[in-house]
Amino acid sequence: xxxxxxxxxxxxxxxxxxxxxxxxxxxxxxxxxxxxxxxxxxxxxxxxxxxxxxxxxxxxxxxxxxxxxxxxxxxxxxxxxxxxxxxxxxxxxxxxxxxxxxxxxxxxxxxxxxxxxxxxxxxxxxxxxxxxxxxxxxxxxxxxxxxxxxxxxxxxxxxxxxxxxxxxxxxxxxxxxxxxxxxxxxxxxxxxxxxxxxxxxxxxxxxxxxxxxxxxxxxxxxxxxxxxxxxxxxxxxxxxxxxxxxxxxxxxxxxxxxxxxxxxxxxxxxxxxxxxxxxxxxxxxxxxxxxxxxxxxxxxxxxxxxxxxxxxxxxxxxxxxxxxxxxxxxxxxxxxxxxxxxxxxxxxxxxxxxxxxxxxxxxxxxxxxxxxxxxxxxxxxxxxxxxxxxxxxxxxxxxxxxxxxxxxxxxxxxxxxxxxxxxxxxx
Amino acid sequence: xxxxxxxxxxxxxxxxxxxxxxxxxxxxxxxxxxxxxxxxxxxxxxxxxxxxxxxxxxxxxxxxxxxxxxxxxxxxxxxxxxxxxxxxxxxxxxxxxxxxxxxxxxxxxxxxxxxxxxxxxxxxxxxxxxxxxxxxxxxxxxxxxxxxxxxxxxxxxxxxxxxxxxxxxxxxxxxxxxxxxxxxxxxxxxxxxxxxxxxxxxxxxxxxxxxxxxxxxxxxxxxxxxxxxxxxxxxxxxxxxxxxxxxxxxxxxxxxxxxxxxxxxxxxxxxxxxxxxxxxxxxxxxxxxxxxxxxxxxxxxxxxxxxxxxxxxxxxxxxxxxxxxxxxxxxxxxxxxxxxxxxxxxxxxxxxxxxxxxxxxxxxxxxxxxxxxxxxxxxxxxxxxxxxxxxxxxxxxxxxxxxxxxxxxxxxxxxxxxxxxxxxxxx
Lengths: 427, 427
Prior knowledge:
By secondary structure, chain A is of the alpha/beta class. The first copy, chain A, has two domains: 3-52 and 313-426, Alpha-Beta Complex (Aspartate Aminotransferase, domain 1), CATH 3.90.1150; 77-310, Aspartate Aminotransferase, domain 2 (3-Layer(aba) Sandwich). Chain A is 43% helix and 14% strand. Chain A is built from 15 helices and 14 strands. In chain A, strand 3, helix 8 (140-149) and strand 4 (152-159) form a beta-alpha-beta unit. In chain A, helix 7 crosses helix 11 (280-290) and helix 14 (367-374) packs across helix 15. The longest helix of chain A is centred in the C-terminal third of the chain and has 27 residues, at 310-336. Chains A and B meet through helix 1, helix 2, helix 4, helix 5 and helix 7 of A and helix 1, helix 2, helix 4, helix 5 and helix 7 of B.
């Protein structure tokens, strides 16, 4: 059989979902540095490796294993919802962070990173052909998940203060006019130091968005808000803005997704959700089929990290570290990039969002991309971060730079190479 | 709104998949001991807690963290497919266990327990209305997964040597006659010390099953075999039987699912699959959306456990421990149960499968079940382990007893109570 015929045969063996699921668009890009060690990647979204809490975790292990019974409980199967003490600790923590008390730990579910919560929430709410609204631009991994479940993804324009309320309202009104409003199931929004833009939603915007979604929602056509607060703990400066979830005092509309990966260590592969009480059992039933519970040992260690203050100490140190790396990145951009190039100054998180002059595409295959590749430097092309919709042109002159994983010297070198590529593309 | 109306509203907000997904039938049963601490559970499928490798894991942590660079790599994000060294180690291990060499580590995927592999495999192959063949009886958790994806589950009768070849052939022939053969996507089979029966497939049966599936399969209508070998390492006695997967020399038909939970520690929540090369990318794409990789720290610790021999030492110890517990359970059954009650003597694994005389139902609500409950002892009713199919009556006079989690004294006490309940139900 020819390999083309074989590939076709193979596809016919797969479920509709599997046929809709492709390799992440960005995979080939992230693999490039493995092929060429001289390649400097400002694309990789990993965390700073030097500052990972190796010593702290040894302490946590010693603490847990000093009690043999507790250690053995941590090595046993856990429950689908996650370790009870951890969930209680998180409930109190969220109350301290301003969410309406009392929080019922029953509505907190421990997941494999926040990603699993994004997946479960989507799988439980979205049928093929349903609509999910996202920010323009948004987190590209989640758009892969939406493709896989067969959702139609619509991007809502944003500015530096978050989703533009008028744009959200206009989209919903036009969907109402076309009779498609009942198919809108989720508004996905990253409220803090968004990936890729690095900007946050102001409090006013959170209120506006919540009000609009509530207004276009009814008992029959319910729109949930999926608030992804992955970068919440990584605030360098500026005022504290309450979670959008704060507005959901009856705990019925907003799913809050959090992670331990950014502010502590991705190696635990743990995150959690605080869920509307009506959805919790359905998310749990689904997780029961996926894996009936996340790693119990990892959960017990994280629980100790939270209770002893080790987690918060580490997060505080990380904020310093990332702030310094951000400062360095902005400084080099300022000194070396042509003035026509614009960028946002993030007050937290891991990313700087850069906009080239109109007409200078950053997409794979563009002159700029090739100039960068020739100079052995990588970025995330902005086009990957936009929901691609028929009949709507999205910007293609942007890029995401990440200062988290890269160390200082290669960061400076990589940015200089990118500045060279900019200059070349602009001539 | 009334609570009934509210529940209906709530359901209308869910995806079709979520509406198909229910709480595991057995949940209420497994929660009973929490409500009544005097309840003795021979139902719980947890592992022996006393023997969990707390000391060994401290050693593994010390080993990993003695190299700061290695420790920090383990605390970073991993890859979707899992830690490369672990996958290489497993490839060699599977070759040593008799699978055709060379095994490409690219086809080994690390998952959250073997459960996640069962889920991913099913999700990638099965559309609603497709057919999955399982053993009668089979692992009840997997049947929940099948309901959730909308599969039609058909049980194939088994005897003490595994699936009965004639029964498999007859089922496939009848599906062929009705035009439904193309909808058969998977045969799910537990080859070693099956849950719930405790029996294994003989080598001859493996060959027969493989041949039949191959014969009814074509390029267009492909039937995969999902070989769940979760209890492979827990063999107490008898000859070694090669994996069914051994027959799949081209690596195209059999997905082998393995776990570290039974022979080492469930708290890591890790398992793995050895997959047909054609399926690997599709399973990985799906896992990318679920969680883009299992816990990296846990994977690194397991890798050290395998490489140092700590894993195998522990598994050897566990075999002794479980054999002794099995011997005790069989001994008490022999001495206390009425002679009309039959049971299988497992040569490995964690379960004893008991058959009451015809007409004595063990199902929830039955006289026997109530007599047991009144005596504060629990078992898994056999009915939960059968695919319920319209027009086919399945046995309802069986039960699964687990000797893994329960300690010796309560085990003896629980069995005596169950024997009392038997006697009461038989009078």
